[in-house]
Amino acid sequence: MSIFLTFFLLLNNMFGGGASTGHSSAGLWSSLVGASHQPATPGSEEGEPPSGISGDPQPDAPVIKGIYVTAYSAGGERMATLLDLLDRTELNSMVIDIKDDLGNITYKTSNPKLQELGNPQPYIKDVDKLMTTLKEHEIYPIARVVVFKDSVLAKSHPEYSFVQKDGSIWQNGNKDKFVNPYREEVWEYNVEVAKEAAKLGFKEIQFDYVRFPEGFEKRADSLKFTKNEQSRVDIVSGFVEYAKKELEPLGVRVSVDIFGYAASVPAAEGIGQDFVKISSGVHVISPMIYPSHYSTGWFKQKDPDKAPYETIKGAMDDTHKKLEPLGEDKPIIRPWIQDFTAKWLGKGHYTPYGAAEVQAQIKALNDSGVEEFLLWNAGNRYSEGVKY
Question: Which tens digit of pLDDT belongs to each residue from 337-378?
């Protein structure tokens, strides 16, 4: 089986899982549409390569060792347990859902655009109080914004989404709907969400689902959606560049989650993710290198989930090699690692994950020269006894 086919089959099995900067949004968008053979990098002159990051807006930030926190946890009883975990360990950061996987804004807001497009929910009952609590506990706050997977926006504005021949909005096997990265309005809305998060006090905006749906290249011709002559790769990397330019004046870092496989294969043209192009436009890149998401044969492992050290080490070797061309413009590498048990892999193909398995992943990162990491557990139940 070719590496390309392997890659896309693996992707299909994955889970979840303002102020102007001197360029108007319309001007930036026009420059993208007109640059038929240039990467979609807002603000760059014709023929000029992407400029890379212009400096760290958070130069005093600590070495980040964080956890994922749902809006339900952030606004509920579980938050006390998570605060205690960070108080007792070297963990020092929380990645909190501000726009979730459905497209809901997770707190009540007075922002008209977010009220109109984001279906605000009171999952975080008092967002200002939350920010005060994080500051009191010296926790580095990161706002997670799910970008192009957005059922809420797709339902309310089908013209921003992908429409089938029968007039219905396309959805994937999990009934998730996506919005179209070619739409200027979608760019502006998600950056507006990020700007409000920055004004609330978040020090970093982490964009997730910065891509087209998995396997999009197989169905694009059967769907109705707005597009131009730009490639999917250039449009996706163009959004990242645009977001960074808009957010840098607010003093926040921009980070992007990306498939871990993207460092090990050529550009994923179908979903529009190019590891190097996206990395050149962010301050932090977070490849999702969960061992459970690699199949037999990756990094010479029969069952990668049962070999957390070897799998993470192999993924980091590929990541460093992939980013070599960026030189001094290389972003901070802060991977997502696994703190959950992948029972869906079937008996004999997974191992229960606990402190030892998390520790092995961290050792592999450290042995690869990577100090920062984020732990993923969808239920926010993290292993005790890990030396972070």
Answer: 999 999 999 999 999 999 999 999 999 999 999 999 999 999
Superfamily of domain 3-45+65-376: Glycosidases (3.20.20.80)
Q: What share of the chain is helix, strand, coil (3-state, %, to 5)?
A: 40, 15, 45
Nearest Cα to 107, choosing from 133, 78, 143, 71?
71
| The two three-digit tokens of residue 172, written as one number | 């994937």
**What is residue 331's DSSP assignment?**
P
Which of 47, 13, 49, 43 lies closest to 28 in space, CA to CA?
43
- Give the Cβ contact number of residue 199 at 10 Å: 12
C-beta neighbour count of 83 within 10 angstroms: 16
Whole-number Å distance between alpha carbons of 310 and 308: 6
Tell me how far apart the alpha carbons of residues 235 and 229 are, in angstroms, rounded to a whole number.
10
Domain residue ranges in the chain: 3-45+65-376
* Whole-structure pTM value: 0.87
Tokens 């560049």, residue located:
241
324-334 per-residue burial string, b: 16 or more CB within 10 A, e: under 16:
eebeeebbbbb
- CB-based contact 12:270 (threshold 8 Å): no
